[in-house]
Recover the amino acids of this structure.
């Protein structure tokens, strides 16, 4: 009953285009933000940081990036892992070549480098679509990972081929390296997610977002109403890759601290991010966040229930997890391409009419 | 003259879609193109808005010969169109589809859009206000937020017209806007077309099969058959042209 828009009339276009048009949603948003910024850092420990919150935040950035490209602009990519590797290795090179440079700039610059690489690998999208484009991006995935294994310059000729993040600070606090506190790790990722999600929301709600969606829905009609397909597609590749690159840099520098290209940025990661946006909701920033949360939390919850609660074999639990993800992907692709975020909207719609559905 | 089509020929392999077609479009008129199916009418519109490049002939627009031109550039020069088979953006609401019509008019660049606050937001509301006028004009207020895929055919046609109008075109190309409509819907559509022409001074090229509609609203008519232009004149003349009666009216009635 309390979830209502009655008395919440929209009298201006500004009100009508708000991100959270209903006052209750807006309040909840500020509440979540408050908890995330002020409460969580107080009790966060290593387990919550490393197993849950930091991976959720890092994957959120990658999922927002892929959702811009795939969900908004309709260009399929299986190269997310490879582009994350570009971000990670760019960050590593920048951190080691320019030790004076602030880590925040290193991470943003890694995004820009990835963005340039994304444009190059986006060029085929001007000629090919759908399945063929997916295969081309798959080629990018394998090529990039191969490159980072093959050329020792990228990992500074280290013996193992691993890259390790040196310690860097923000306002005197270590956010990378071995001495990092869980809450510092969490807060820097949160800051990136907050700013980047806000930017993505702004880009997708305005003219650029409409260009992308027009290309996605019908590229020929888009061209005829004045959308330049070349600029629309390449801008989607550029911006999407920027996000994915930043995610790669955070994944390497803040979350894991040390990575090896094949293991950390394989094809599995490409699929993981794709699953996130399919389950969370294609073409929705909120969906990217939910999808990331789901794919990070689901294995943990399942493992706790199946192996912890029911005493199943861990390997069996892993199989169940695979099957569950597979089924969910199929269900969402067939029944609800807009994912959990759409189910959420439908639920709200119902709730708004409750208890009188007609 | 707003536009002149001079000696345009268009072939698809062995199929001659347009064969040495020449006619002109005066500023502010409603120009109808009629002819049996496969006559080349839609191809003509596709040449006018740059989607097809003719093998021969030129298009002159506002006194200038069109050099090469990409469709998206030509849209920016004030030519908008609707399609014979509706070409809306299925994943978007009616409102967003019509907002897309204004993409050629957006001035805020990337950084302003990224920031949103200030210029980009203000501009968005200006566009929104214009679009709301179009929505009122087309009487589709109630379906603003409905995904276009869920709309009935007649309303989809209106939304598509709205999207074309949103770009504030100089020249509006309508490919069979009344096809498949009942009489009432046709009357509404005629009224919209006439109002746009009269109130905004928009030049309109309209492909239509219903001769009654053409006689009522067109200032001049081009008649095509087998890719050739067989008659060009005011509706009353066309009605009594023997070639036209043989080629088209004879078949249709
Ligand atoms: N893209 C195309 N490829 C091949 N043939 C085409 C194409 N577009 C139109 N045609 C051919 O050109 C001729 C004219 O078609 P069209 O312009 O659609 O006629 P109308 O709109 O008058 O019914 C037809 O024979 C059609 O088959
Ligand atoms: Mg046609």
């Amino acid at each position: 009953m309390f979830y209502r828009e009655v008395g919440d009339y929209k009298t201006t276009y500004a009100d009508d285009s708000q991100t959270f048009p209903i006052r209750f949603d807006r309040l909840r948003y500020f509440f979540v933000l408050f908890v995330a910024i002020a409460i969580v850092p107080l009790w966060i420990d290593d387990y919550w940081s490393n197993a849950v919150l930091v991976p959720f935040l890092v994957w959120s950035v990658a999922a927002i990036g892929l959702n811009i490209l795939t969900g908004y602009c309709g260009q399929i990519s299986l190269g997310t892992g490879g582009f994350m590797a570009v971000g990670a290795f760019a960050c590593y090179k920048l951190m080691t070549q320019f030790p004076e440079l602030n880590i925040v700039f290193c991470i943003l610059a890694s995004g820009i480098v990835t963005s340039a690489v994304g444009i190059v690998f986006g060029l085929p999208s001007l000629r090919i679509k759908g399945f063929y484009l997916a295969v081309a991006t798959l080629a990018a995935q394998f090529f990039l990972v191969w490159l980072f294994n093959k050329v020792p310059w990228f990992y500074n000729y280290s013996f193992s081929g691993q890259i390790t993040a040196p310690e860097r600070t923000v306002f005197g606090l270590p956010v990378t390296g071995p001495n990092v506190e869980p809450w510092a790790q969490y807060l820097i990722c949160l800051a990136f997610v907050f700013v980047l999600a806000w930017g993505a929301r702004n880009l997708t709600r305005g003219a650029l977002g409409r260009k992308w969606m027009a290309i996605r829905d019908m590229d020929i009609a888009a061209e005829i109403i004045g959308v330049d397909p070349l600029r629309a597609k390449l801008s989607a590749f550029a911006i999407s890759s920027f996000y994915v690159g930043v995610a790669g840099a955070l994944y390497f520098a803040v979350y894991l601290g040390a990575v090896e290209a094949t293991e950390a940025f394989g094809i599995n990661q490409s699929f993981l991010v794709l699953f996130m946006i399919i389950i969370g909701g294609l073409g929705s920033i909120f969906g990217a966040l939910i999808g990331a949360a789901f794919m990070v939390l689901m294995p943990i919850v399942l493992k706790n229930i199946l192996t912890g609660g029911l005493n199943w074999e861990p390997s069996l639990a892993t199989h169940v997890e695979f099957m569950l993800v597979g089924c969910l992907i199929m269900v969402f692709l067939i029944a609800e391409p807009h994912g959990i975020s759409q189910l959420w909207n439908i639920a709200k719609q119902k709730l708004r009419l409750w208890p009188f559905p007609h | 003259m707003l536009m002149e089509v001079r000696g345009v020929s268009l072939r698809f392999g062995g199929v001659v879609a347009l064969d040495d077609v020449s006619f002109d479009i005066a500023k502010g008129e409603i120009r109808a193109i009629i002819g049996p199916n496969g006559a080349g009418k839609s191809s003509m519109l596709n040449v006018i808005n740059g989607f097809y490049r003719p093998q021969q002939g030129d298009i002159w627009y506002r006194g200038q010969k069109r050099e090469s031109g990409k469709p998206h550039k030509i849209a920016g020069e004030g030519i908008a169109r609707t399609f014979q088979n509706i070409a809306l953006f299925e994943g978007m609401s009616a409102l967003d589809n019509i907002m897309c019509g204004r993409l050629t008019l957006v001035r805020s660049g990337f950084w302003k859009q990224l920031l949103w606050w200030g210029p980009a937001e203000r501009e968005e509301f200006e566009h929104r206000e214009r679009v709301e006028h179009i929505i009122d004009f087309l009487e589709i207020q109630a379906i603003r937020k409905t995904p276009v895929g869920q709309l009935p055919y007649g309303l989809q046609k209106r939304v598509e017209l709205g999207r074309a109008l949103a770009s504030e075109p100089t020249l509006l190309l309508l490919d069979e806007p009344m096809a498949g409509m009942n009489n009432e819907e046709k009357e509404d559509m005629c009224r919209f077309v006439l109002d746009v022409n009269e109130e905004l001074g928009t030049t309109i090229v309209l492909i239509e099969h219903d001769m009654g509609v053409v006689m009522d609203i067109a200032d001049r008519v081009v008649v095509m058959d087998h890719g050739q232009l067989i008659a060009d004149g005011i509706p009353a003349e066309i009605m009594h042209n023997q070639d036209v009666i043989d080629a088209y009216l004879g078949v249709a009635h």
Chain B touches chain A at residues 49, 51, 70-72, 75-76, 80-81, 83, 87-92, 96, 99-101, 103-104, 106, 108, 110, 113-116, 120-121, 124-125, 128-129, 132, 163-164, 167 (CB under 8 Å). The longest helix of chain B spans residues 119-137. The CA atoms of residues 194 and 217 of chain B lie 7 Å apart. The pocket of magnesium ion (ligand 2) is lined by residues B 41-42, 84 (CB under 6 Å).
